[in-house]
Fold this sequence. Notes:
Layout lengths: L1 E6 L6 E7 L12 H8 L10 H10 L4 E4 L4 E7 L4 H13 L5 H17 L4 H9 L13 H5 L3 H13 L3 E6 L3 H11 L4 E4 L10
Amino acid sequence: MQYIFQQDKTKRSVKFAIVFPYGSANDADDHGIAHLAEHLCFFSTADPKYAATAAELEKLGVTIRGETYKTDMVFSFVCRPQVYPRAVEILKTMLARTDYTDSDLEREKRVVLAEIADKCSSTEQIVAQTLCSNKSFCHEILGSEQTLSQITVEKIQRVKELMSELDSTVLVCGNVSDQALSLTKQLFGDGKRQVDVPNVVNSTHC
């Protein structure tokens, strides 16, 4: 794990992101599995096990976002400094979760299939399919109805296990305390590297 921290006490918020070096190019034959795994990290308010946690996030005023790219998967949020410790704890719980059921998987497959139905091939995708010599980069991030039908809970769990072993990057910037940064490292591991960006007095970046 690599950490990039930038403290700026003049800011009113904290920005957090964790970047996993795992995206649709890693999908192999299960096109769409990275994106589906990202979806399954999120708590459903319809799930009794996690409804309270989902409601707590809403009460904290925190929206956690997930995005899957060709080579990376990113989870991020922006929050008030006083709620950062709890927000980052909840995100860690989301990322560590593997107790998926078949109904969880089928629910998210339906969501992704609706995304596929609404999506037209982008110019970027058409160019990639035409010119790219590395065919793994030509995989549709969302997958297809056929490839999604072959994805099982066990396959998702293997992806989550692999993600936990990757040399990922955590970025935190804004009005964040030393104690909150220590908590972040405690939650995500000591890490191999840490980059401390010089603290700033005035900044427009965070």
